[in-house]
Design brief:
17% strand, elongated, five-stranded antiparallel β-sheet, single chain, Alpha-Beta Plaits, alpha+beta, 2 domains
């Protein structure tokens, strides 16, 4: 219980899911996907989840749980975790979202689906770097174009013997 409480307190994102009638092989595949996304996955008893969540940002979503419950946690990348869970849910209709907490804010099932559609952290960083480098590329192209124009004019002048010796 204490470890779960610590994990809930440290995590920036917590997703509560229903996993009824999932085969063991499917559960192993899900855990692998979650680990690759930098998260943790744990099947919990509802009363344990509620007690462990007291005093944490996840407290509102862990109250009055019913049925088979699992919690997926991530400390730094909620988008990657949401994508991994959503991809698994597409393949396994018995696996469903109940609620989530992202950066201390309770999110609905619809918001989790939207979160899963966002580009990943690495992709966003790549786009920002591309945009930052874009003005420099434009400037280099403009300078290169001017230099090419000057070289063309000088070459033409030399061919037409416009310069006196």
């Amino acid at each position: 219980m204490e470890r779960l409480r610590e994990d809930l307190a440290k995590s920036s994102s917590v997703f509560v899911v229903n996993f009824e009638r999932i085969k063991v092989s499917g559960d192993f595949a899900l855990r692998k996907q979650i680990r690759q996304a930098g998260g943790r996955y744990q099947v919990v008893k509802n009363t344990l989840a509620e007690r462990s969540g007291q005093g944490t940002p996840a407290e509102p979503v862990l109250k009055a749980l019913t049925g088979a419950t699992a919690i997926a946690l991530s400390q730094d990348n909620p988008v990657a975790l949401a994508k991994a869970l959503s991809n698994y849910a597409k393949e396994n209709p018995n696996f469903t979202f109940r609620a989530g907490v992202v950066e201390g804010r309770v999110v609905s099932v619809a918001e989790i689906a939207e979160l899963a559609l966002l580009p990943g952290k690495e992709e966003l960083l790549a786009k920002v770097l591309y945009l930052l480098a874009s003005p420099a590329r434009g400037m280099a192209t403009a300078v290169q174009s001017v230099m090419r124009g000057i070289a063309t004019v000088l070459d033409q002048a030399v061919k037409e013997k416009k310069f006196s010796s």
